[in-house]
Amino acid sequence: LDLIPPNRHNPPGSLRSRKLKRLMPFAALSLLVIGCTSAPPQPTAEKWVELTADGFTIEAPKGWTYVKQQGIDSLCGAFFGDGMTLEYDLGMYSPSLSKYEGSRAAEDEIIDGRQARVVMDRAEGFAGVYIPEATKGRRGEVNLTVYSEHQLTLTQMYLALKIFRTIKFKK
């Protein structure tokens, strides 16, 4: 590997040429270490706010809004922001997202101490979370489903997942 081309000031085999060749690996390693060192985390300008819905809260970027909707057999509403809508259904018959059960789009995790199924289907632009037995109602266990209403971009899907993971239930 001859990275230093010979010239009249640096003839092949000269002492200067040999010293430079010996220093090259150290210089390359130094650049690699400096380039890979992560900078300290910078504070983000984006502030997140807490939005309160029926029996639970979420955190979302500043500028998001919440609108309560009329449900038939459950509590419903929607969160709006960043060009997307996340609707929710809190009730005994909330959709379980069973369509995604066993698929690579679904993953089980814990949200606010409860078992949850988180779904991110890139092909459909869909993001959702289903939390069975999220709370207790007058007639038994109540489930929560929060999902995207329209096809989302990949960036929006990742934002939705971040929001889902902030769900907190009222004690």
What are the key terms here?
171 residues; three-stranded antiparallel β-sheet; 10 strands; 2 helices; alpha+beta
What does this structure look like?
- The protein is of the alpha+beta class and about 170 residues long.
- It contains 2 helices and 10 strands, in the order H-E-E-E-E-E-E-E-E-E-H-E.
- The strands form 2 sheets. It has a 7-stranded antiparallel β-sheet, with helices on one face. The protein has a 3-stranded antiparallel β-sheet with strand order 1-2-10.
Task: Give the secondary structure arrangement, pairings included.
Layout: H1 15-36, E1 48-52, E2 56-61, E3 65-69, E4 74-81, E5 84-91, E6 106-111, E7 114-121, E8 126-137, E9 140-148, H2 154-164, E10 168-169
Antiparallel strand pairs: 1-2, 2-10, 3-4, 4-5, 5-9, 6-7, 7-8, 8-9
Question: In summary, what is this structure?
Answer:
With about 170 residues, the protein is α+β, with helices and mostly antiparallel strands. It has helices at about 15-35, 155-165, and strands at about 50, 55-60, 65-70, 75-80, 85-90, 105-110, 115-120, 125-135, 140-150, 170.
- Give the amount of beta strand, in percent: 35-45%
Tally of individual helices: 2
General shape: elongated
- Whole-number average pLDDT? 81
What kind of assembly state do the chains in view correspond to?
single chain
H and E order: HEEEEEEEEEHE
Summing up helix and strand content along with how strands pair, one would put the structural category as alpha+beta
Model regions low in confidence, pLDDT < 50 over at least 5 residues: 36-45
Q: What is the radius of gyration?
A: 27 Å
Strand arrangement, largest sheet?
A: 3-4-5-9-8-7-6
Main beta sheet strand tally, sense and closure: 7 strands, antiparallel
Question: Which percent range fits the helix content?
Answer: 10-25%
Number of E strands: 10
N-C termini distance: 67 Å
